[in-house]
Design goal:
Length: 462
């Protein structure tokens, strides 16, 4: 119902003629901040010596969290919740095998069993790994109960949910973070360090994507929820893995902000066929295009290209490209860097016009060694690769979340990051349903986007 009302509002504004200012951009309303609230830029909370965690949703992502979190210094799992009781028992067995204490609260069997976990006194952080449709109500109730929340991707599905999470975080002064693991991949972290140290000059364009053939995995999603969502909704429904790392490079809401997006998609050539095969029904309508591309412009005149494709045999890629005035970085299809090199005129050979200097293989490793990310100590990298979780980036994500909570520091990702990275889904949908018209990206900070100058990690004084 919320999504229907949102679209009615957009179309009503279009009909009234107030959504077509100079430039023909569809305006996106920014609700007034509730009285008495302030933004949560740089939000800190009282340090928590031991972070007591309740995990909701014990399927694929949730089980991984149960296996990782006990290895994070200062973290303890005190509560478990899943609709299916056997998953709670399996998670308890994992903790027992790791030699960890049994959780003091276990909840299952009812659609809203998670309410008990949110209310449990010895829970500081609610870690949400359910299907997408349940992220929002759990997070909202958890913050109402005074808990910090960490929400799997995407944390919010429409603009109402995005603004709801922002307002609740501002009201309760609780952290609301999306569990975007890809910002902690090793190549991305190293490239961020390079960009911040000026190796690429000024970064002017970035690219990110989620291209992943999900054919082997559709049946793994409980009650077919993920394929069903793709069938019902048009747009880039899963943008955060691609956009998160490149937004950090561009200092989004830390000196720059996204202002406008335009989306285009292909027809659904494969979607209906895949849905028919997996449901056993003759599916004729499938909203999500096989390939969706979104181009975004920033206040400073920089651009982002974001793509989504889970329906073709295209090799896995998050694209991740960084284009600067003096350098270039790309992770896919092969990791490489390219830096501007000034050559004397007598050494320029027009016959070798594409003979630029590219770093790959061992040269790439040597170059990267001089740009170790400030938070990626050798010990953290070793433990992350040992514990695992998408090669170790999941562990680094958990480690940083708990580290910041223990030291009372701002988190690496705040609720405005969550909003900016999730908004691509509903706003790309508006653009597509209106003939790929430009759509305004709102300032989710409501005016504070330029207060902080540059992305940085918070570190405790040792």
């Amino acid at each position: 119902m919320k999504r229907i009302l949102f679209f009615f509002a957009v179309f009503a504004l279009l009909a009234a003629g107030c959504c077509k200012p100079a430039g023909n951009i569809i305006k996106t309303p920014v609700p007034a901040r509730p009285a008495g609230q302030q933004d949560v830029i740089g939000l800190t909370a009282d340090p928590i010596e031991t972070v007591r965690i309740g995990v909701v949703g014990l399927g694929m992502r949730g089980t991984g969290a149960i296996e990782r979190l006990p290895h994070v210094p200062g973290a303890v799992i005190t509560a478990l919740c899943d609709l299916l009781p056997y998953r709670v028992e399996e998670s308890k067995a994992i903790l027992e095998k790791l030699g960890k204490p049994a959780p003091t609260g276990c909840y299952s069997g009812e659609q809203e069993s998670w309410r008990g976990l949110c209310e449990q006194e010895d829970v500081d952080l609610v870690y949400i790994c359910t299907d997408w449709l349940n992220h929002y109500p759990i997070a909202m109730y958890a913050m109402e109960c005074g808990k910090h929340v960490a929400i799997e991707v995407p944390a919010a599905l429409d603009m109402d949910e995005i603004w709801g999470l922002i307002n609740m975080s501002e009201k309760t002064r609780r952290h609301c973070m999306m569990l975007e693991n890809c910002i902690y991949d090793f190549f991305e972290m190293t490239t961020l360090e390079m960009a911040q140290r000026g190796l690429f000059g000024e970064v002017i364009h970035v690219e990110g994507a989620y291209c992943h053939n999900l054919d082997p995995f559709w049946d793994e999603y409980w009650n077919n929820w993920r394929l069903d969502y793709n069938q019902k909704f048009r747009g880039d429904v899963y943008p955060t893995h691609g956009i998160g790392p490149v937004c950090q490079v561009l200092d989004i809401h830390r000196g720059d902000r996204m202002t406008t997006l335009v989306s285009m998609d292909t027809k659904s050539f494969n979607g209906a066929k895949i849905a028919s095969n997996h449901t056993g029904m003759d599916v004729r309508e499938f909203a999500n295009g096989d390939e969706t591309s979104t181009l975004i412009r920033t206040e400073k005149g920089k651009t982002l290209l974001i793509e989504h494709d889970v329906m073709t045999p295209r090799p896995y890629s998050r694209m991740y490209q960084v284009v600067g005035t003096d350098g270039y970085a790309a992770k896919y299809p092969i990791p490489q860097y390219c830096l501007r090199e000034e050559k004397p005129a007598d050494q320029v050979d027009a016959k070798h016009i594409s003979d630029e200097k590219t770093y790959s293989g061992e040269e790439l490793k040597t170059l990267q060694a001089g740009y170790r990310n400030v938070i990626l100590t050798e010990e953290l990298e070793r433990v992350a690769k040992e514990v695992g979780g998408h090669g170790g980036m999941d562990f680094i994500m958990d480690y940083r979340l708990v580290y910041c909570l223990r030291h009372g520091l701002p988190l690496d990702m705040d609720v405005y990051d969550l909003a900016e990275w999730c908004c691509v889904a509903p706003l790309s949908r508006v653009s597509l349903e209106n003939g790929s018209m430009p759509v305004e990206v709102p300032d989710f900070t409501r005016g504070a986007w330029n207060r902080v100058k540059g992305f940085k990690y918070a570190l405790a004084e040792e």
